[in-house]
Amino acid sequence: MSDSSITTGKAIGSQTMPDIGMAAPADYFELLKPRVMSLVIFTGLVGLVVAPGTINPIIAFTALLCVAIGAGASGALNMWYDADIDLKMARTANRPVPSGRVTSGEAFGFGITLSVGSVLTMGLVVNWVAAGLLAFTIFFYAVIYTIWLKRSTPQNIVIGGAAGAFPPMIGWAAVTGSVSVESIALFLIIFMWTPPHFWALALFSSKDYAAAGVPMLPNVAGERETRRQIMLYSILLMPVTALPVLLGFAGVIYAGVTAVIGLGFLVFAYRVWRDAEGEYKTARQLFAYSILYLFLVFSVLLVEQGLGLAAPLRAVIVL
Q1: What is the pTM of this model?
Q2: Domain ranges, ordered by start, for the chain
Q3: Which of 13, 78, 120, 125 has its CA 20 to 30 A from that of 290?
Q4: Is 213 exposed, middle or buried (0-12, 13-18, 19+ CB in 10 A)?
Q5: 22-178: CATH topology
Q6: 11 beta partners
Q7: What phi-psi label fits residue 51: left (phi over 0), alpha (psi between -120 and 50 degrees) or beta?
Q8: What percent of the chain has pLDDT over 90?
Q9: Residue 233 above 80 pLDDT?
Q10: With 50 as the cut, is the pLDDT of residue 312 above it?
Q11: What was the pLDDT predicted at 8?
Q12: C-alpha angle with apex 294: 290 to 299, nearest 5 degrees?
C-alpha cells in the first residue's frame, strides 16, 4: 500500500474507494469493532479475576479499559488497511472507511493514537509486563495478521488467531506482573477455538472472500478440506479446554460444564464435516454455537472463582 493511500481514496478495479470524511461519533465507535471488543474485555476480565493475588479495583478497571482501547485500536488499524478489500465484500462494504464516512488518514491516526495511549497508560498505571503484552497484541493483529498473513496464506486465521487469544494473558499479567503456565492455558483455549469458529464463517462467506481475493481456506483448499480441518481442530480443542482442571485452577463445575458443551461442539463440527448439501446451514449453526461455547467456558471459570469453588491454584511458574 502506498503512502498516499493513507490520505486519499484508492482505485479498486473500476471502483474508487471514497475518502470523503463525514464521520459521526457512531462511525468512530464502529471502527473499534465493538462486538469483538466485548469478547476481548470479557476474556481479559476472566484472566484478571482467576489470577492469584490481589489488585486495586481502580487499577483493575484501568487495565481492562486499556485492553478495550487496545482492541479498538487494532480494529481501527485493521479497517484502515483492509478498506480496499472491505469495499468488495457485501458483509463489510458499509464499514466507515470503504463507505467514505471516515477517511483513511482519520482511521489510521485514530488507531495509532489509541494504540500509543492504551499501552502507555497500561505501563504507567498497571505494569510494563501487561503493557508489553498489549503492545505485542496490537502489533500482531495490525501487522502480522492484517498486513501480512491475511492476504498471503490460507493459514492466516490459524496463526493470526493468536492476537485474539492474548487478552486473558494480559489480564493475568495485570495482577501478577508475570506470564505463567496457567495464563498460557487460557491463551491456548482461544487459540485452538479460533480456526473452527472462523472457518465456519469462511464457509458461508466464501464468495465474499473470493471477490476480495483473500485466500481463505475454502477458496484455496476447497470446502471438503475446510470441513475436515474444522473437525480436526474441534477435536484438538477439547483437551486444551481441560487444561485449567489439569493445572489446578478450575474445579468440578468447570469440568462438568465444559464436558457437556464440548460434546455439543463436537456434534456441530461433525455435522459440518458430513454436510454435503452446500447450503451452509450447519456451518452457520457451528459459528453461532462456537460463540456461546467460548462465552460459557470463560463464564464458568469466572463463576467458580467468584463463588470460591475453584480448586486451589498451583504455584505460578514464571517464564
Answers
A1: 0.88
A2: 22-178, 180-311
A3: 78
A4: exposed
A5: Tetracycline Repressor; domain 2 (1.10.357)
A6: 16
A7: beta
A8: 77
A9: yes
A10: no
A11: 38
A12: 145
At residue 16, φ and ψ (nearest 5 deg) are: -120, 125
The 3-state secondary structure of the chain reads CCHHHHCCCCEECCEECCCCCCCCHHHHHHHCCHHHHHHHHHHHHHHHHHCCCCCCHHHHHHHHHHHHHHHHHHHHHHHHHCHHHHCCCCCCCCCCCCCCCCCHHHHHHHHHHHHHHHHHHHHHHHCHHHHHHHHHHHHHHHHHHHHHHCCCCCCHHHHHCHHHHCHHHHHHHHHHCCCCHHHHHHHHHHHHHHHHHHHHHHHHCHHHHHHHCCCCHHHHCCHHHHHHHHHHHHHHHHHHHCHHHHCCCCCHHHHHHHHHHHHHHHHHHHHHHHCCCCCCHHHHHHHHHHHHHHHHHHHHHHHHHHHCCCCCCCCCCCC
Task: Return the CA Rg of the chain.
Answer: 20
Predicted local distance difference test score (pLDDT) of residue 160? 86
The pLDDT of 88-107, averaged and rounded, is 92
CB 175 within 8 A of CB 64: no
d(CA 211, CA 11): 15
Average confidence (pLDDT) over 144-167 = 91
Joined grid coordinates for residue 220: 484455496
In this structure, are residues 194 and 172 in contact, taking their beta carbons and an 8 Å threshold?
no
Q: Please check whether residue 45 is in contact with residue 127, taking contact to mean a CB–CB distance below 8 angstroms.
A: no
pLDDT value, residue 7:
38
pLDDT value, residue 74: 96
Cβ atoms of 87 and 100 closer than 8 Å:
no
Q: What is the mean pLDDT of the chain?
A: 89
Residues 99-119 have a mean pLDDT of 96
Does the pLDDT value for residue 5 go beyond 70?
Answer: no
Backbone angles phi, psi at 298, to 5 degrees: -75, -30
| pLDDT on residue 310 | 65
